[in-house]
Structures are given as structure tokens and as C-alpha cells.
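Check out a protein:
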Amino acid sequence: EMHAVLRNGKRLAVLVLTASLLSVNWGLFIYGVVSGQVVQTSLGYFLNPLVSILMAFLFLKERLSSMQTVAVVLAACGVLHFGWYLGSLPWIALGLAFSFALYGLLRKIVAVTPLIGLLIETLVMAPAALALIWSLSSEGRAEFGSSTRLTILFLGAGVVTTLPLLWFNSAAKLLRLSTMGFLQYLAPTLQLLVGVIVFEEPFTNREAISFALIWTAIGIYLYSLLRSRKYTVPMPDPD
């Protein structure tokens, strides 16, 4: 299957693009964390579902019901309230949101199974990663391989990152892109819980209002999905 994809220039070109988008997304996220701009990274992942829903509307012609539209407006208000206090153009947040939303759109439409697609994306970026490791090692600045404990943590982080990405690509083939977008609010919410409970970071009124709006929107959206499924009449069997 991988050989067939590698011989298909169009599909291979799309996977090269998705690999580049994923690398930009992860690079921005790591830069935001190590440079002390975690608020911007969390805002980026709050913006991402809205961008996914917008792309689903523009490119896949997915339509929202009136209840789902209300949910999108509420979620947008929550994100705007959260980002209002940053005081400058959140380029890290915008880069994270648009790069991953575009990645999800392309992976949904490209005719490649999730595992093979992720394998090819990894192969595409592996030479650049190995070159960077070699360059840093030659300068004595490489962290990977500097100690057994740190190397095991790096490898473990790779597994923890790759498995959700594989599951994301599998879900993208089965769900509407707009539904995928709303479900992605789970990730930054869990990040907030980790920050508050594990790292004891402050939870201010800004976060409380934003999360109240966002989770109200999620509840409305999920209710609309359950309601539409409840009233969907199955097609009769022609036999």
C-alpha cells in the first residue's frame, strides 16, 4: 500500500505538504512552551476548532444547523474573550490554529489510510530531523542521546504524540470535519486541568468565563448531534 502511494505523485505531494504543516505546528508549539508563551499556545488550540469548522464550511460544503451555529458563535465568543487580554497579534496562536486545521482538512480528503499516511509523513521529515540532530551533536548542543534518562523521555514523548495523531487521522476519515473541530476543544481543556491541578497555575475569571462559554457551546453542539441522530429515519431495505 505504501509503495502504491509513493508511486502516486499527487498523493505523495499532499503528504509532503501535510508533513511540513505538522512539523510547523509542532515546532511552533515547542517554541511557545520553551519561550514562556504557553497562553498563546493554548489560545491556538482553542482557535483551531473554529478554523476547522470554517474550512469544513468553505471547502467540504458542510452545513450547520441553527443550534450548531449558536454553538459556534458561543465558542467564538469564548475564544475572543480569552485572547482579548494578550494585547498583541498572537502569531503563534494563529500559526498553530491554521497549520493544524489545514493538516486535518488535507488528511481527510487525501485517499490514504491513517497508518500509511503517518508512516510516509514520518519518512519525509526523518532526513531533516536526523540532519538537525547531527548538526547539534557536532556542536555539542544536542540533548537527544546526552543521557539515558533524557533519551527515554524523548522516545516516550514520540509515542505519546504519535498515537493521538494516528487516532486523529482515523477519526478524520469517519467524522464530519466540523464535528472533529468541536471535539478538539477537549485537548486545551485537559491542558488547563493539568496546569491547574498538577502544576498549580492560577485559574482567573478570564479562564472561567472563556471555558464556561466554550463548554456550553460543546454541550449544545453535542446535543444537536444526538438530536439529529434520534430523528433520523433509516432507509428501508430494498430487499
